[in-house]
Design brief:
Blueprint (H helix, E strand, L loop, with lengths): L31 H8 L4 E5 L5 E2 L14 E5 L3 E10 L13 E8 L2 E8 L11 E8 L5 E7 L1
Parallel strand pairs: 6-8
Antiparallel strand pairs: 1-2, 1-3, 4-5, 4-7, 5-6, 7-8
Length: 150
Amino acid sequence: MTFERVKRPEVIKLPTMLDFYPLEDERHTRVSLFFKYLRDGRFMTTKCKRCEKLLWPPRVVCSTCLSDELYWVDLGVEGELYAFTEVRLGAPLGFVQDVPFCVGIVKISGLLISARIDGAKYEDLRIGDRVKLKVVELEDGRVFYRFVKA
């Protein structure tokens, strides 16, 4: 019995389902406005017209009352560091080369939002630190959010 050897490609393109960053255009998501606003430096989410629930992440249906009558609200660009940690091992695919890096929970407009905290070492962060939005432009033109110390 013989086996055929298969040469592994030097670069493996990850399937979309393993891509951490969402597809942002209208064809792929009904919250594409979030990414358009983010590109303009505005951190937005949806709010329900019926029950006034502020929703995170942005949605097309309210998770409380199931209404689809939502509107966009501005969260502002500054928040408070609620909790944080440093990733040293076990980073997701595509982020292994970035370790160590900090991630945190940011309290902004009453919501708790998880995000990377760029430009800070673990020992330099404190709960209660003011942080501000950082828009990250990806190589393929997409955008995403992170925070930095204010």
